[in-house]
Write a structure and sequence with these properties.
Blueprint: E1 5-14, E2 17-27, E3 31-36, H1 43-51, E4 58-63, E5 79-82, H2 94-104, H3 112-118, H4 134-145, E6 152-156, H5 164-179, E7 183-187, H6 191-194, E8 200-205, E9 208-213, H7 215-222, E10 226-232, E11 247-249, E12 252-257, H8 260-272, E13 276-282, H9 286-300
Amino acid sequence: MSATVALHDVAKSYRAVRALRGVSFELAPGRISALVGHNGAGKTTLIKLMLGLIQPDRGTIRVLGEDPAAGAFAGRRALGFLPENVAFNAALTGKETLAFYARLKGINPRDGAALLDRVGLGEASRRRVGTYSKGMRQRLGLAQALLGWPRVLLLDEPTTGLDPALRQSFYDILDELRRDGATVLISSHALHELEDRAEQVLIMNQGSLVADGTLAELRALSRLPIRMTLKLAEHVARPDWIPNHAALRGGACEVDIIDPSDKMRLLRKAAADPAVQDIVVTEPTLDELYAHFLRAQEQAA
C-alpha cells in the first residue's frame, strides 16, 4: 500500500528555534493517524509543511505523490484542513461561507448543503456566522474541511467546542472517509478520544518524532505493565497461583504484568478458579505511552 503522505529527514527552523529535527514518517490511505505532543513540539509546523504553506530547510515531503509547496501542486483540491482556531467572515451566513469555499475548490456550491446538515448546522445555515457560538463555528470549519470528500484530511484539535453527540457524529464521518480510502491525520491533546480510533500514533517532542506505530506496537516497545484486576468471592483465601507482588484492594487482587506471556497464563488460571468472580485487563493508555516515550527521550538526551 503506497503512502499518500511521506516525509523524509525533514528539518525546519525559525531563526534560533529548531521546530523540526530530521522527522520521517509515512501516512497510509484508509487509516486514521494521531499526531500528539505538547505545545511547541512541532505539530503545527508539520501540518503547514504538508499543506505546502511553508517549505522545509532540509528533507523531502510528498503529498499524493507531489511536493505540496510546488506552485502547480495538483493535489491541493484533494486536501481538507481544519485549523485549531477557525476564522470566518462574520457578515456571511453559514451557507454563503461554505459556498465560497466550494467555489475555491472548484466544487458545486450546492454540494455543501448536505454537509451543513451533517454537522448539525442545517437550521442555522441562513444565520450570519457572527451569531454562531464557538462550537457552531467549529462545525462550520469541519464542513469546510470535508468539501469534496478529500483524499487527505488534516485536522488540528477538531473536536474543540463540540458536545458529546456531535463529537460522535464527527468520528462517524471520519470512519466513512477512512473506509473510502482517505488518509486522516488528527492533531489533538484529547488523547482519550484517540485511543480507540487511531490506527497509527505519532508522538512528537521538541521537534523530534520519538515514537511511531500502532498502539499495540507502542505498548510492546514501552514494556509498560498490563494491569489485571481479579475480583475474588467473599470469604475465600487468596489463591496460591496469584503472584506474591499482587496488591489486595477491596476484595480484588491487582497484578501488574510485564511479560505478555504471563497474561495468558494468569487468565487461564483465573478462568478455571471458582474463587475469581470477575477479571478486568487494563492495557497501558495512550496518555501513559505518551508520558513514557517523552521520559525515555529526555533520559537519553
